Amino acid sequence: MSKSKDSSRRSECPISFGLDLFGDKWTFLILRDMLLFKRSRFSDFATPEGISTNILSDRLNRLEQAGIITKKQDPALKNQNIYLLTEKGKRLTPVIVELMLWGAQHDEQTPISKDFIDRIDNEHDQIASDMKQTIRVGEFESYRAAEMGVNANLYQKSKL
After folding, report:
1. Sign (positive/negative) of CA torsion 30, 32, 36, 37?
2. pLDDT digits (tens, 9 = 90+) for 17-29
3. 60 exposed, middle or buried (CB, 10 Å; 0-12, 13-18, 19+)?
4. Is the separation of the CB atoms in 34 and 71 below 8 Å?
5. pLDDT of 83-99, one tens digit each?
6. d(CA 114, CA 133)
7. DSSP of 70-127, one letter per residue?
8. Are 56 and 26 in contact (CB under 8 A)?
């Protein structure tokens, strides 16, 4: 089965493809909020990081067009939509985990405990596996507090 070529792409490189979709400062934060913190409403994404509504709308539309998320009417609030990750979107979990671990090791201002950061080099694969599992079962916030040493109350804006 051949794929049709999109003339708007910069190159055929898979990294270029990923950057065209995710290479701005907001898209991965939206995905982070969906994966780690189970956020799903427009207002859930707009508040924590201060993203403007027009940019948020654009990023959500772009993710929906790419099949990363789906938009549905909120069954509880009929005048609102909820955004959910598709299977394609959930497959970004390892990317989010690796970005988080890399950031933890290299961000001098990270709230993540030094003990956890020190373990990353020696226990990387196990930590990544544990994080992916806790995300999959919806228990990342507990893991974040217990293993990463991050006080959830201290980071109301959803910062790691």
Report:
1. negative
2. 888 888 899 999 9
3. buried
4. no
5. 999 999 999 999 999 99
6. 22
7. EEEE-SSSTTSEEEEE-HHHHTTHHHHHHHHHHHHHH-TT--S-HHHHHHHHHHHHHH
8. yes
Q: Which two tokens stand for residue 20?
A: 């065209």
pTM of the model: 0.85
Residue 3 to residues 6, 12, 62: CA-CA distances in angstroms? 9, 12, 20
Q: Which residue has the tokens 């959500």?
A: 60
- Taking Cα atoms as reference points, which of 113, 21, 120 lies closest to residue 63? 21
**Burial class for 32, CB neighbours closer than 10 Å (0-12, 13-18, 19+):** buried
Q: Say how many C-beta atoms besides its own lie within 10 A of residue 11's C-beta.
A: 9
Joined tokens for residue 149: 């040493």
Distance CA 1, CA 41 (A): 37
Tokens of 61: 């539309």
